[in-house]
Amino acid sequence: MYKKLFSAKKIGSMEVPNRIVMTAMGNHIANEDGTVSEADIAFYGARAKGGVGLVITECACVDFATGKGNLRQMSVDDDKYIPGLKQLADEVHKYGSCIAVQIYHPGRQGIAEMNGVESMKSASQTECQCVHQPTHEMTTDEIKEMAGFFISGAKRLKEAGVDAVELHGAHGYLIGQFLSPYTNLRTDEYGGNFENRMRFLDEIIDGIRKECGEDYPIIVRYSVDEHMDYAGHPECGLHLQDGVEIAKHLEAKGVDALDVSAGIYETMNVAWEPVGFDQGWKMEGPQAVKKAVQIPVIGASVIREPQYAEQVLEEEKCDFIGSARTFFADPDWAVKAREGREKEIRKCISCLYCMETLMAADLSPVPMGCAINFQGCRESQYNDDTLKKDGNGRTVAVIGAGPAGMEAARVLAMRGFNPVVFEKQEQAGGQIVLASKPPKKEKTGWLVEYQKHQLEKLGVEVRLNTAPTMEELKALEPYAVFVSQGSKPIMPRSIKGIDGEQVYTPVEILNGSVTLKDKNVCVVGSGMTGIETAELLCEQGNKVSVFEMADDIGPGIFFQNLIDVLGRVNSYGTMLYPKHRLVELDGTKAVFETTDTKEQESYEFDAVVVSLGTASNTELKEEIEKEFEKVEFLGDALKAGRIENAIRTGYLAAAELD
User: Fold this and answer.
1) The model's pTM
2) The domain defined by 389-488+616-655 carries CATH number 3.40.50.720
3) Is there a contact between 190 and 197 (Cβ–Cβ < 8 Å)?
4) What is 491-612's CATH number, 3.20.20.70, 1.10.443.10, 3.50.50.60, 3.40.50.1460?
5) What digits encode the pLDDT tens for the residues 596-633?
6) What are the residue ranges of helices labelled H in 477-628?
7) 479 an active-site residue?
8) Which is catalytic among the residues 2, 104, 173, 479?
């Protein structure tokens, strides 16, 4: 099974045992001094143990003092980092996998204050339109010094026993800033024509060859297309034909492999894609490069399923399948694929919780993590091998088969408890079933399928169409009761007319109990549920207007996801009204008050969908707490929230039950 995917292939002198590559991804778990942490070793070790052929670490700093992307990031700019890097390499090698460390400098995409500088180094004084940091054009001396930092960093990696070095020239970081005509406006020997724009990277490669030898593998990751059309500047930056020329040049330069990606910060959604991007959408980049060169090509393109990965290899679109989030969501993806256990794979749903928490990690108490894999970045604390196995067959009643309840039941069963799950609906999945209904959200349903299969595999009893009575719960004589009965839409009774005949909730639209077509529809509330419901209504042929009380549409939505969904919503000509508070509904008339001017405005609609958030279901709450000694509330039943909240509370309640 998957003959191509699990065949060995060399990258220079390094033989990779299969075609699966975990590409670089920040995780914010290094020690604050840039040394490799125990958490790093556990994190990357888990992916190697899970069968990844080549593990590529997060980008490590070649200039830790002035070139950090965040405050907890690995570094290679001093010999003191070698012992930790060696420990990391040894851990990955223990499982037969190879390891490369990606090295970089953020350039204009770094934060000046964090790096203790007045301005960030770059090819030219071109401020990034995403982070908006002061930037200065590097002098020739600064360029030579920086190239030396990359070279000495690679030398330390070789000394530490790391199998290869990857030079990060993708996603608009410093090397990429020299490669691209969008960010490189120089007129000296490091700018202008193609040869000059390649010079900085060429000098780094030459130096590594001199210091590390001809046989030390060098991989270059770069953006084959910066997709500046996404930023409204289609004429700017690197295009696919430019990326192919870069590939030919690097092959001639002696690089051992190319790791092909796309985008820069201004076009971030093509680099770290939200859910709206289909599996394989940008494989034309790696495919075009592979046709142009003989050296191995690593291709990344939202690849989630082993069947598709095998197809890509068979069609010779690339030589190695690259992904980061795939293996963040499930470190055992490769082992499960090799053993034909595809239904057991916890497939990444592209929700971008990882990117959201990574970007906020320096300023937030919330650690970087994966919404559907609580263990991600916490492997040194929480892992299946160290999970207590002391359930001894004791019964735990779990009320609700949403994501929190199913996660709790899974972990309880792994511990040896006997979870009995009650679900009042005819199917498991709870809010996730609804969340998978809007356009482009089918990936979200993968989580439900994974959880259902896990419970089947573990022999967990799930009683569908059953809302348990107190007598039924008592009959189980449960050791504990877990309550995960979800949430319901908020419908403020203070708003006159909210019980009107043509007023609906997002639940009714998403579950199909109400179908609107060719109607003039008002959606009140532009949180993620509201805006996605609006998109579904648009797709169903309705004219839609979205009203939001906040100053901007999409309050609280991570900006990458908002850009993604708004792009589609706007394509339907949807009218958006921020700063509008719903005052009254009167038949087909909706009355709003503008929050800035306090003026009232009336609009006529055929239907109104009210999406003003959710509140926890509280049925049986007091009675359950009164009747049972050990009671845990999970997910929305504890506090209405997101998928991460459900998975986290479910996992911890089950893992820590004593």
Assistant:
1) 0.96
2) yes
3) yes
4) 3.50.50.60
5) 999 999 999 999 999 999 998 887 788 899 999 999 99
6) 506-510, 528-539, 559-571, 621-627
7) no
8) 173
